[in-house]
Design brief:
Elements lengths: L2 E4 L3 E7 L2 E8 L1 H9 L5 E7 L5 H9 L2 E8 L5 E9 L2 E8 L19 E4 L4 H10 L5 E5 L2 H4 L6 H9 L4 E5 H8 L4 H10 L4 E5 L5 E5 L2 E5 L13 H16 L4 H18 L6 H5 L2 H14 L5
Parallel strand pairs: 1-4, 1-8, 2-6, 4-5, 8-9, 9-10, 10-11
Antiparallel strand pairs: 2-3, 6-7, 11-12, 12-13
Helix pairs in contact: 1-8, 3-5, 6-7, 8-9, 9-11
Bound molecules: adenosine monophosphate (AMP).
The site of adenosine monophosphate has 18 residues, from strand 2, helix 1 and helix 8.
Length: 304
Amino acid sequence: MSLLVVGSVAFDTVETHAGRREDVLGGSATFFSTAASFFTPVRLVAVVGEDFPEHHVAELQARGVETAGLQRQPGKTFRWEGRYDDLNEATTLDTQLNVFEHFKPELPTGFEQSDYVFLANIDPVLQGQVLDQIRAPRLVALDTMNFWIEDIIPGKRAALEAVIRRVDLLFVNDKEAELLSGEDNVVKAAQRIRDMGPSTVVIKRGEFGALMFSSDGIFAVPAMPLEQVVDPTGAGDSFAGGFMGFLAASGRVDAEGIRRAAVAGSVTASFAVEDFSLDRLKSLDKGQISKRYTAFRDLVRIPE
Ligand code: AMP
């Protein structure tokens, strides 16, 4: 089944305890589509500037990412700069929207018929414009961040609330859940967010895994305990990529299928943080994902 993503393709400058990298490949849609490509082909909708090297596009295509919806516009590619004093939380130092300021997402013919849709972290107005063009999706999921929730650009919070009303599944981290709902208790925050529209809410908690709230109850998604985390950038998008890629590949959106997909998301994210940028995902293979998926079973096995 088809999977479409709209989000950012970016150059990131990142500083973690392990070092600093300048202008490396990043972006919510880049991490998402790379992670999802281990499970299923992906349709990418985004924009880059004149400064974006063609080899990055070719590498995505080689992984099964359809790039007909990736526009190249005059100007510079989106840029984000962040620092991690605490590996569970990025401090944004700079955001340059650049070509995203005038981006008009237009879906190439055929893309409007996509079964699974992921509105990755991007301007919520653009998320809504993409959703307007999709015909009859089976499942729509959305990710966002404090930049939009806190209304740093006036009007974006209202746009975000409007698009959240239209989605089935929301991915947020615990801080974002608190900002969005006004509740610091994670269970109450999830309830409030479910009242805002999405029937399923996944609250990501960094190295502590994630909690998924739905009509099925609460599912605790483990995170792989790792000896070394190099760069958490893209963990959220890789989680969503593994999750949505697994769902689209299996076609099962029942409670069990969604639980398995959540574990696939956590497995994929656990690799993404082992190196800077997309470096670890690029060297990863499906066999390594399957092996770690099995290791997750042992991680949470509770004897009768
Ligand atoms: P995460 O998976 O949450 O760590 O997302 C990391 C990616 O989000 C980085 O590669 C950034 O390029 C991208 N990003 C950061 N801020 C924004 C923003 N305001 N809009 C869109 N993408 C962003």
